[in-house]
Amino acid sequence: MSLTARVSPSPHPLVQALRAEWTKLRTVAGPFWLLAGVVALTVAVGAVAAGAAQCQSATCGIDPAKVSFTGLYLGQAALAVAGVLAIGDEYSTGMITLSLTAVPRRLTWFFAKAAVLTGPVLIASALAVAGSALAGRLILPGRGFTPAHGYASLTAGTDRRAAVGAVVYLTLIALLALGVAAAVRDSAAAIGLVLGLLYLFPILASLVSDATLARRLQQIGPLSAGLDVQATTGMKSLPLTPWQGLGVVALWTVGALLLGALVLKFRDA
Fold it and tell me: Measuring CA to CA, which residue among 158, 161, 176, 167 is closest to residue 250?
C-alpha cells in the first residue's frame, strides 16, 4: 500500500509578500511610536486651537470643523515621514537587497508594502481625527459655537463628511510619501520633497497678487485642495468642492506610486 504525501500548495507571491512586510512592520517599534505620535500631536494641537477659538455671533466666520482639525497640518507631516521611512529605511540599511531577493517580483513587493502601510496609517488617522473631533465637541460649545450663534450641531452630516475625508486625506499623504521615497531612494531628500510639495503651494498662493493664479495654485496643491474636505461652512467660496479637492490628492498619490513603481522596476536596487 503506497502512501502519497500530501503537499500543501505554496501561497500566492502577493500573500507571501504581504506576510513578510507585515512581519517587518510589527517587529520594529519605530513605526508604531511614530504613528502614536501622530495621534497625540494631532489631537493636542486641535484641542489647543479649539480652546483659543472664540465665536460670538452667527457671522464670526470660523468653521468649527476646521478648528477641531487644526492638528492635521502637523499630523500630515509626521505621516509623510512615516511613509518615507517605510521604504527609505530599506535603502539606508541595505535591506532592499534581501527584500527583493525574497520577493523577486518588484512590483508585487512594492504594492504589498503599500498595502501593509495603509492599515496602520488608516487606524492612526481615524484615531487622530476622532480624538480631534471629540476635543472640539467638548471645548467649542464653551467658546461660543452654539445654536444661538448659528451652529446647530457639531455632529451634522457635513461634520461626518469632514471627519471621513480627513482620514482618507491623511492616508493618501502617507502613500504619496511612500511613492516619492521609492522614486528618490533617499529618506532625507524624499522628506524634503514631500513637505515641499505639501506646503509650497499654499505659500505661493498667499504671495502672488493675481487672484486667478492664487486660486489655481490652491486647486492643484495637495494640501490646499485636500484639506478643503474638512470645510463645513462657506463651501461656495472654496476653490474646489470638498470631494474634488480630495480627488486632487488622490491623483497626486497615484502619480507618486506609479513613478515609484516604475523606478523600482527599471532601475537597479
Answer: 176
C-alpha cell at 47: 484641542
Cα–Cα distance measured from residue 138 to residue 154, given in angstroms and rounded to the nearest whole number: 10
pLDDT at 155: 57
Task: At 79, list the grid cell.
Answer: 505621516
Q: What percent of the chain has pLDDT over 70?
A: 92
- Residue 207 carries which side chain, given as an amino acid letter? L
**Spatial distance between the Cα atoms of 151 and 172, rounded to a whole number of angstroms:** 30
Mean pLDDT of the chain: 87
**Alpha-carbon distances of 48 from 14, 41, 45, 153, rounded to whole Å:** 44, 11, 5, 21
Q: Which residues contact 23 (CB under 8 A, 6 or more apart)?
A: none
Query: Residue 1 carries which DSSP code?
Result: -
Q: Are 159 and 133 in contact (CB under 8 A)?
A: yes
Scan for cell 455632529, then name that residue: 155
Report the C-alpha gap between 113 and 183 in whole angstroms.
14
Cα–Cα distance for residue pair 47/42, rounded to 1 Å: 9
> Would you give the DSSP letter of residue 8?
P
Q: What average pLDDT does range 73-87 have in this prediction?
A: 93
